[in-house]
Amino acid sequence: MAFEPLFGENKIFYGADYNPEQWLDYPEILEKDIELMKKAHCNIMSVGIFSWSKLEPQEGVYDFSWLDKVLDRLNEAGVKVFLATPSGARPTWMSHKYPEVLRVWDNQMRAMHGGRHNHCNSSPIYREFTRKIDTELAKRYSNHPAVIGWHISNELQGSCHCPLCKANFRKWMQKKYQTLENLNKAYWSTFWSHTYTSWEEIDPPATMGEMGVHALNLDWKRFNTELSMDFCKHEIDTVKAVNPNLPCTANFMEYFNDYDYFNYAKIIDFVSWDSYPEWHVYKDQERTPIYTAMNHDLMRNYKHGKPWVLMESTPTCTNWRGTSKLKKPQMNTLGALQAVAHGADNVQYFQWRKSRGSSEKFHGAFVDHVGHLDTRAGREEIELGNKLSKLGEVAGSLVNAKVAIVFDQENRWAIDDAQGPCNNGMKYLEVCQDYYKALWKKGVNVDAIDETCDLSKYDVVIAPMTYMIRGDYAKRVEEFVKNGGTYVSSFWSGIVNETDLCFLGGFPGPLSNVLGIWDEEIECLEEDETVKVQSLCDALGFNSCFEGSHLCALIHAKEAQVLAKYDSDFFKGMAATTVNNYGKGKAYYVASRMDDNFIEKLVASILDEKGIKGPIDNLPLAVSCHTRYNDKSEFLFVGNYSDTAVDVMLKETYEDLLNGGNVSSQLHLEPYASYVLKKDL
Amino acid sequence: MAFEPLFGENKIFYGADYNPEQWLDYPEILEKDIELMKKAHCNIMSVGIFSWSKLEPQEGVYDFSWLDKVLDRLNEAGVKVFLATPSGARPTWMSHKYPEVLRVWDNQMRAMHGGRHNHCNSSPIYREFTRKIDTELAKRYSNHPAVIGWHISNELQGSCHCPLCKANFRKWMQKKYQTLENLNKAYWSTFWSHTYTSWEEIDPPATMGEMGVHALNLDWKRFNTELSMDFCKHEIDTVKAVNPNLPCTANFMEYFNDYDYFNYAKIIDFVSWDSYPEWHVYKDQERTPIYTAMNHDLMRNYKHGKPWVLMESTPTCTNWRGTSKLKKPQMNTLGALQAVAHGADNVQYFQWRKSRGSSEKFHGAFVDHVGHLDTRAGREEIELGNKLSKLGEVAGSLVNAKVAIVFDQENRWAIDDAQGPCNNGMKYLEVCQDYYKALWKKGVNVDAIDETCDLSKYDVVIAPMTYMIRGDYAKRVEEFVKNGGTYVSSFWSGIVNETDLCFLGGFPGPLSNVLGIWDEEIECLEEDETVKVQSLCDALGFNSCFEGSHLCALIHAKEAQVLAKYDSDFFKGMAATTVNNYGKGKAYYVASRMDDNFIEKLVASILDEKGIKGPIDNLPLAVSCHTRYNDKSEFLFVGNYSDTAVDVMLKETYEDLLNGGNVSSQLHLEPYASYVLKKDL
Amino acid sequence: MAFEPLFGENKIFYGADYNPEQWLDYPEILEKDIELMKKAHCNIMSVGIFSWSKLEPQEGVYDFSWLDKVLDRLNEAGVKVFLATPSGARPTWMSHKYPEVLRVWDNQMRAMHGGRHNHCNSSPIYREFTRKIDTELAKRYSNHPAVIGWHISNELQGSCHCPLCKANFRKWMQKKYQTLENLNKAYWSTFWSHTYTSWEEIDPPATMGEMGVHALNLDWKRFNTELSMDFCKHEIDTVKAVNPNLPCTANFMEYFNDYDYFNYAKIIDFVSWDSYPEWHVYKDQERTPIYTAMNHDLMRNYKHGKPWVLMESTPTCTNWRGTSKLKKPQMNTLGALQAVAHGADNVQYFQWRKSRGSSEKFHGAFVDHVGHLDTRAGREEIELGNKLSKLGEVAGSLVNAKVAIVFDQENRWAIDDAQGPCNNGMKYLEVCQDYYKALWKKGVNVDAIDETCDLSKYDVVIAPMTYMIRGDYAKRVEEFVKNGGTYVSSFWSGIVNETDLCFLGGFPGPLSNVLGIWDEEIECLEEDETVKVQSLCDALGFNSCFEGSHLCALIHAKEAQVLAKYDSDFFKGMAATTVNNYGKGKAYYVASRMDDNFIEKLVASILDEKGIKGPIDNLPLAVSCHTRYNDKSEFLFVGNYSDTAVDVMLKETYEDLLNGGNVSSQLHLEPYASYVLKKDL
Q1: Mean pLDDT, chain A, as a whole number?
Q2: Which among B155, B380, B410, B498 is annotated as catalytic?
Q3: For the segment A281-304, what is each residue's pLDDT rounded down to a tens digit?
Q4: pLDDT at C161
Q5: Taking CB atoms and an 8 Å cutoff, what residues of chain A touch B424?
Q6: Of C193, C200, C203, the CB nearest to B89
Q7: Catalytic hit among A56, A155, A498, A600
Q8: What is the spatial distance between Cα C487 and Cα C476, in angstroms, rounded to a whole number?
Q9: For residue A537, what pLDDT is reported?
C-alpha cells in the first residue's frame, strides 16, 4: 500500500457535521459559523445529513438554493465538504403518502413515521426517491470545488420484515443453497420437525415465530448485511454515475453487531466511523482507551490498513447515555490523537453547533448554545485545530503491525446465538480484549482482523474463541504456523462450520491438528466462581498460581505440550494451557479465561520469542504508545489516559511535532497529555 | 380568601368509599354497615363509583331502586354523600357493543374490555352514554338531602391513540400554532428532517413512531390534560345543568405525571385526592412524611390555598404494592391529622368494607372480612372518628405560608424527556424535596406552587431546576426579587422555552440578570460519585466541607457573589453557590445537588435573614409542626413520625383539642403520636 | 397397591430420547448407535418425538420406512421403545397452509411457525391431522415387539386465545355455572362494574383486557388444564382404539405452573417427567436435592404412589440455562438413583446423541459430537447402566410415607394472583420446602399431595399456606385431626373459597374450629426485615429465640394453646405458633415464615411424638436417606450430595446391591457417592 493521504492533501482534516438547514431563519448565525470555523482551524464539514425535508420540501419539488449558498460560503472559507445523501431520514410527507418506505418490525407491525435509520432497504419506492434526490445532488455538486467525498446516508443499520424483504431473503437463500434439500441439511431442520418443503414457508427469524434455527438466524444477519450493502451500493452507483471519481463512505459504528463490516467495507472507498468512548466512567482508567484502540484497529483493517476518517465524535459529552460526563481538560485532544495514532487522517465531530431543539440539543458540539468559542471546550477545540495543523506529514502514513488479533463478526453472531455453554453472556469481545490489553500495555501495534483476512503477513496471530471456522480458515492457520507463525487459540474454538453445524469426531475440529489437543467437554463457571491454574515453569518460563474463570475447556494434550494445569475442581491436573510445535511455528491453546496476569506473562513470552517490542519499555499504567510510518519517518504517539502525571523513557531522540524542538530520554506526561514525536527512517 | 368550611358545616368530615352495590344479596350486611358507620362516627360516604353496571344493567335500562334505598338510609343515619358519576369503568355490554369507547394504546391496538379508567376521552358514544346516566343521576339525586357534592368519574388518567383523539390533537395544535410554519419552528422539526407539510402528517408520539420531537411530546401531554379536562367538564356541565349549586370534584393522585393539575383544577370546585404514603417502608423515618407533606401542599395550592378533601387513604394497608405493610398503632391517626394540618377539611378512606372478591379484596378498609370493628384497626378508626369530631372549628381555616417551593408539572415533563444531561434520572422531584425537607424540619409552612402562580405574596421562593421558563415567569422572578424577595435557583435552570427550544446567548437564559451568573456547562456525576464543595464563611455565615452529587453546573459569577466553591475535580475553584443582590432582594444559585447539611444551613440562614420561624424550635428527628388559622385562632399540629418517644418545647400555652385541657412548655410525644393544639389570635 | 413393575419386567429401564430421523444421511452413525446402546446397557429409547416432518413429509403422504428399520433394529438389540406421537411440533407445510393450527397469544396475535409445543388445542384441523398420523402410527406399531408404551406429544403446555378456544372457554363456564347470575356472584363481578350480561362478553384474561377478576383467571387456568387434557385424551383415544393395552404417558415438567397435574394425571396410565436439577449451582448443597426430592414425591403421588418414569434428564449439562454447569463425577449416578429412591422404575435421558445443529445441539447426551463413549461422561453412563442392571428387584416396589406435605396447584395459582399481602412474591413453594427440608434431613419418607388427596392414611399432614380451601378439604382436615392425626397449618390459610371469594366472619374461615385461632390481620415484612419469636419451653419442649420473616399473621389463640410468641414490633407478645387439641389429634398453626432452626425443632418434636423415624439417625449435611419396599424387602437409598466425604451409621446389616457383599454399622460416603442397600422384611 502506498503512502497516500486519503484526500490528496498533506493534512489531517478537522471538522464536524454541519446542519445549516436548521438555522436558515438565523442568517447572523450562519455568518458567525464561518467566522468560528476559521478561528478553530476547521477545514472540513459534513453537510446534508438529514436535510431531505429542506431539499425536497414537497414530492418532486427541490430546493437547493440554501445549499448552494452554504457550499459556496464554505468553499470561500477554505473548508472542504463531505456531502451527504439524505436517506438517513425521510420527509414526513413521504412516510405519510407511501407508508411502504417504513420498516416492518420483528413484531410484524409497520413502523409509523419517526426517528431515523428505519427505511425499508427493499422498497422500490424508497430506492426511487433516493435515486432522484441523489442524482439531483450529484449533478449539482459532484464537481463543486468544496466537495471531496460522499457521505452515504447515515449509520446504516437494522432489518425489516416486510413482504418485500421476506421475498428478497428467500431469493437470497435460493441463490445460496440452490435446493431446499441443501438448505434443510445445512440448517439441521429435522430438529423439531422444521423441515421446509417450499421456499415460501421460510420466514425470517421472529420472536412470534422461529428463533431456534441458528443457521437461519445467521443467514438472516448475512442477508441483511448484503441487503443494506445493496441499498448503499444503489446510492453509490447513483452518485458515481455523475462523477465516478468522488470517493464514497458510509459511517460505521462501535463494535456494531447488525452487519459484518469486513464484508460491508468492500463497497465503499474509504472507512469512516462514529466513535463515542465512555471516558471517565470506569475506575479502571485503561478500560476505555483499550476498548477504543481495538475498535480503531478494526476500522483500519476493514480496508486492510488504509487511513480512515473519524467521522463523528464529541468535543465534550454525549446526550444519550445514562450519564453525560464531560471530557476533562485535554481529554478531547488525547482522544483525537488516539484516532490519528491508529490511522485516522481526519478528526471530525458531531456536531458543529448544538441544535436549539429536538432530541440531540444537548449533545456536545464545537459551538454551544451560547454561540461563541470562548468556552473551556471551545478554547481546547481551537488549540486542537492548531495542533492538527502541525501534523500534515502524518496524513497517508500507515501502521506496521506484526501482531494480529482475530475478532470475527460472523463468529460473534454464531457464538452469541448458539445456546450454551454460557447463555449469561459468552463474552467473545471481552476475551479478545483480554489479549489486546496485554499487547496495548506493551506498546505494540496490532491489527484487528477477521477469519477472512490474510494471516501470512504477521508473526503472531491471536484468535480467541474461534467457535465458527469459516471457509478455509483452518487450512490457512495450518499454513501460517507451518511457516513459522505463532498462533494463539482458546477454549470454544473449532466447534461449528458456517451453518452452525458441529464438527463430528472431536473438537477443536479442523484446528485439532495444528493445536494438537482434544477438547472433550467444557465447564461453565458461575459469575463469582474461579478455578486455580498452575503454570509449569520449565515449559512456560514462569511459575505461579493463576485463576481461570467463565469457561474451562477440559482438554487432552495429544501432540501438544502442557504449559499449565488446572489446580482445583474435579478436573484438577488436566491441561489448562498447551503449545504445539507444528512445522516451523507454534500453536498455543488457552483452555480457560485466564486472569490478566497470566495473559500478560504469556503474551510477553511470545513477543520476546518473536523479537517484537514497542518503542517504549515499561509503560506506566494507562499510558499508550503507537506508531505510524511512511517512507521517510516514523511517528510516535504517546498518550496518558490516567489522572496522574507520569514519566516514560524514550530510547531515541525525536522531534516534538506539537510543541517544537527535540525530546529524548525522559518524557513527562501530565494527566491526559499527548505527544506526537517523529524520527527519520 | 374567606375562612369558609368547604361544605358549610363546622366539621371535619370522616368517611369512606362505599360500595353497597356489591352486597345487595347480603341485606344483613347493608344493615350492619349503617350501625358500624354510626359507631365509627362516620358522616360522609362516596357512593356510586364503579356502579354503572348496577345503575344501567342493560343499555337504556336504568335501576336506581337500590341507590334510592342506600341514600335514604345514609341520610337517616346522618351520613352525607359524595355521589359519583360512574364513568370510571363501563359496563361490559357497552364495551362489547361499542368497542370505540375503549382506548387505543401507544402500540396502536385497541384495548379489550377490562380494568378501569381506560375509556376514550374523545368518543362521542362514551360521552353520550355518560351524559345520559349523569343526567339521570342528577335529576334523581341533585337535591337529595344527603348529597353534598359530585365525585366526577374516578382518578382520571392517561391518553388514547384512536383516530378521534388524533384528530382532536391535530385541531388542538392547529388552534395553538395557526400555521405549520409556526409549529415547525417551535418544534425545531428540521432536525432529522421531521418537518410537517400537512396537519394530517402529525401523529401523537408513539413507541413505534416518533418519540424524539420533545415539543410534540410536551404538546401531547398538554393536549391530554385538556382533553381529559374537557371530558370531565362535559360531566360537570351535565350534572350542573340540573343543580348548578352542587360542587364538583375529581379525585387527584400522588405527584401525578399524566396531567398538569394546576391547569386541571380550574374546572373543579374543590380539590380532593387519594393519598397512600409508604409508611414504615424506609429506614429514614422522615422520608415518607416529608414526601407526603409536600404533596398535600401542592393539592392545597391547586386551588390557591382553599381547604381540600382527602378523598382516599387506607386505614391499614394497600394491596397493590410489593409489600403490604400494616400501619403501626396510631399511624392512621397521625396520617389523617397530617392531611388536616396541611388544609384538609375531610378525612376519607378507600374503602368502607373489603370486597369479597376481585382485585382489591385485600386492600385495607374500615370493615374487614370479619365483619365488625372490634379489631385493632377498627378500634383506632372509632377513636379517630371521635377525635375528628372535636376539630369542627378547624374546618375552613387556612394555611399561612411565607415560603413557596416551585414544582412545575410542565417543567417536570420537559426535564424528564429532554435527553441529557442525566438520562438515568434527572431527579427533579427529589431535588425539590431536598429543599422542602429543610423547611419541614424547621416547622415552617410552605406553599408548593408552579411557575404560573403569584410569587408576590411570599418572602422566599425556592425554585430548583427551572429548566423550562414558562410565559413571563422570568419577569415575575425579577420583579419578586427587585421588590425584596429572596429567590433560590439551582443548576439546570433557564435552559429552554415552552416548546423546549434552548435559549441562545448563554444560560440561565432569561434568569441570567437576576441570578448574575453564566452557566457554561454541566457535568453529570456517576451514581456513586461526589465532588467536594467548600463554603466561604465570610459570605455564607458558615464554613465547612460539603458534598455535591448528581449534576454540577460549571458557572461563572458575573454580578453575583460566590458563596461556596467546588473543591475537587477539574473545576476545583469554580463557584458552587452564588448570591446576587438585585433590587431590594437576593437571588441564590446552587450549582450542584448539595448534601442535606449544606441545604439545611443555607435555608436556615435565609429564614433567619427573613425573620421566618416555626412555632417550635429544634424539632427532633421526624417530628412535624404545621399550622392553620382562621380569624379567631391558630391551630398547631404536631406529629411524631418516629418509633421513638420524644419531647418538644412549646413557646406558648395551647388548648389541647383532642385530649382537653391546656398544654405548655414540654410536650411529650409517644411514637406516632399526634396533637392538635389551639391558641387564640 | 400391588407391587407390580411398571412394564411387567423386573428391571430398572435405562435409556434416552432417540432421534435417528436427524441422521438418516449418516448410516454409519445409525449403526454405531446400536453398538453404543449395547455397550451402555441401554434397554429403552423414546422414539418419534418431533418426527412429524419425516413421517408425513407432505400433506397426506406418509413415510414409515425409516421408522420401520429403526424399531426393528432396536428390537433386535433388545431395546424397548416408548413410541411418541409427533404432535409436539408440526411440519412447516401444515402451519403454512393452515395457520389456524397455530396458537394466538395473549396479545391477540397469532403465532408464526416456529418453536414447538404451541399448537391450538381446540383446532379441529390440528386434531384431525393428529388423529390421522396417530392412527397410522398405532396401526403400524401398536403390536411391534419393541414398543411398550405411548409417549403422547411432548411437554404439553400453555394456552391459546383464538376464537375457537374462547368459544370453548365460554362453553366450559356455561357448563360450570349454568347461569350468568351464578357466574357474576362467584366472580364478584360487581366490582369495577364488570358484570357480564351475555356469555359472549366473557373473554379470557389478557394483558390488553381484563387481568383483575381473579376467579376468571383461575377458571382460565382450570379450563386450560382440561382443554389440554382433552387434546391429550383425543390422542390417547386414537392410539388405544387400535391397541387398548399399550399404556400411555405424557411427560410432565418441574413444578409446572400451567396445569394442575393432579387432575391431568387421571387420563394417563403412568406418570413420567423431565427433571433437570441445577446441580452445583448453589453454595447450599442441600438446596437442589431437596427441591428435586419433593418434586419426585409429587410425581409419585399424581398416581397415588405408583412407580413412575424419569423420562428426561441430562448425563452432563443442559444448554438452556444461564450457565451450563457440568455434573461432577458420580453426580449423574447419584441423581439417577435419587429418582429410583423416590419411586422411579425407569431412568431415561434427553438425549441419546447430540444433534449437529439447531437449538439443543449443546445439550448433554449419551453420545457427544465426538461420536464414542470413551469420555468422562460416557464411562460413567456405562457404569450406571451396569449398576441399574443390578436393581431389577427394586422395580415395582413402593414408598411408604407416614407424613404428607400438601402442595396444591389451584391454591398456588390463587395465592400468586390474589394481589396482596406480598406482591413481591408469596413464596408458597419455598414455604412448603421449609417443612419438606426438615423432613428430608430426618431421612423420613414423605408424600407430596394436594387438597383433594386422601389424608386418612397419614400420621402427620403438613399444609402451609392453604389460602384456598377446595371442596370439603376443611371437613376432611377436621376428621383427620379428630381421628388422631397431627396437622400443621401456617399463616395465609383459610382465606378464600374456590372462586377466590374471601370467607366472611373471620379467618382461617372453615379451618377456624380445628385450629382454634382467629387470624385478625397479616403484616408483610420487607425483604431484609425479620421479627423475633420466643418459643415457650413448657409448651413446645424447647426454648430459644428464633426469627420470623416474610409474613406475620397477627392471631388470637382461642381454643388453641400458645407455643411461641412474637418478641418484637408492635405485635410483640402475640401468638406466633399455637397448637389445638382437637378430638384425638393436634392442629398446629405457625403464624410467620419461621427460620430453619425453629421448623426443624418443631418437626422433630412432632415426629418424636408420633414415633416416626428414618432408618439412619443424625444424617450429615446433604446426605439423603429414603426407602422403597415390596412384599419381601426394603431398599435403602443413601446419597451424599456434598463435596465432602462423610460416614453414616447403619442400624442393621444390609446387602449392598451395587457393590455386592453386606454392609453394617459404618458406611463411608465419598463425595456424590450413592448406595442401594437391601434388607429382608
Answers
A1: 97
A2: B155
A3: 999 999 999 999 999 999 999 999
A4: 98
A5: 322-323
A6: C193
A7: A155
A8: 11
A9: 73
Could you tell me the three cell numbers for B319?
A: 394491596
Task: Look up C312 and say whether it is catalytic.
Answer: yes
Question: Is the omega angle on the peptide bond into residue B124 within 30 degrees of 0, that is, cis?
Answer: no
A69 touches chain B (CB under 8 A): no
**Residues in chain A, overall count:** 681
Q: Are C402 and C458 in contact (CB under 8 A)?
A: yes
Touching chains, A (3+ CB pairs < 8 A): B, C
Of the candidates B201, B420, B521, which has its C-beta nearest A93's C-beta? Answer: B201
> Complex ipTM, two decimals?
0.96
Does residue C109 contact residue C71 with C-beta atoms inside 8 Å?
no
* CB–CB contact C357 A501 (8 Å): yes
Best interface-test mutation with B: which of A356, A367, A643 has the largest number of B CBs within 10 A?
Answer: A356
pLDDT above 90 coverage of chain C, percent = 98
Strand intervals (E) in B595-664? 623-629, 633-640, 646-649, 654-656, 662-663
Residues 6+ apart with CB under 8 A from C331: C279, C280, C672
Question: With contact defined as beta carbons under 8 Å apart, do A570 and A440 qualify?
Answer: no
Say if residue A680 is exposed, middle or buried (CB neighbours under 10 Å; 0-12, 13-18, 19+): exposed
Provide the pLDDT for residue C589: 98
- The radius of gyration computed from the CA coordinates of chain C, to the nearest angstrom, equals 26
Question: Looking at residue C270, what is its pLDDT?
Answer: 98
Whole-prediction pTM value?
Answer: 0.97
Residue in A26, A92, A373 to test binding to B, most B beta-carbons within 10 Å: A92
**Among candidates B92, B116, B370 on the partner chain, residue whose Cβ is nearest the Cβ of C197:** B92
Give the closest of C112, C363, C369 to A504, CB-based: C369
**Residue ranges in chain B whose pLDDT is less than 50:** none
With CB atoms and an 8 Å threshold, state whether B570 touches A21.
Answer: no
Confidence of residue A542 (pLDDT cuts 50, 70, 90): confident
Give exposure, C291-319, as e/b (b: 16+ Cβ within 10 Å). bbbbbbbbbbbbbebbbbbbbbbbbbbbb
- What's the mean pLDDT in C283-303? 98
pLDDT of residue C1: 75
Nine-digit cell string for B273: 385526592
Residues of C in contact with A499 (CB under 8 A): 357
Q: Quick one: angle between helices C428-440 and C287-302, nearest 10?
A: 100
* Dihedral of the alpha carbons of C128, C129, C133, C134, in degrees to the nearest 10: -40
Q: How far is C386 from chain A (nearest CA, A)?
A: 23
CA pair distance B282, B464, nearest whole angstrom: 25
Considering only the C-alpha atoms of chain A, give the largest distance between any 2 of them, rounded to a whole number of Å: 78
| Residue B636 CB neighbours (<10 A) | 26
H-helix segments, A530-658: 537-540, 596-610
Whether chain A has a CB inside 8 Å of the CB on B208: the answer is yes
Would the CB atoms of C526 and B109 count as touching at under 8 Å? no
Mean pLDDT over residues A65-78, rounded? 98
Strand A585-590 with A486-490, pairing: parallel
Distance (Å) from the alpha carbon of B141 to chain C's nearest alpha carbon:
21
Residue with cell 406399531: C141
Q: Which helix (H) or strand (E) holds A412?
A: helix A409-417
* Number of residues that this document lists for chain C: 681
Tell me if C57 and A206 make a contact (CB, 8 A cut-off).
no
Q: Bridge partners of A312? A: A274
- What pLDDT, in 10s, does the model give residues A203-258? 999 999 999 999 999 999 999 999 999 999 999 999 999 999 999 999 999 999 99
Give yes or no: B312 in active site: yes
C585-590 vs C561-566, strand pairing mode: unpaired
- Report the residue of C107, C173, C190, C213 to disrupt the B interface, i.e. the one with the largest count of B CBs within 10 Å: C190
CA distance linking residue A218 with residue C18, whole number of Å: 27
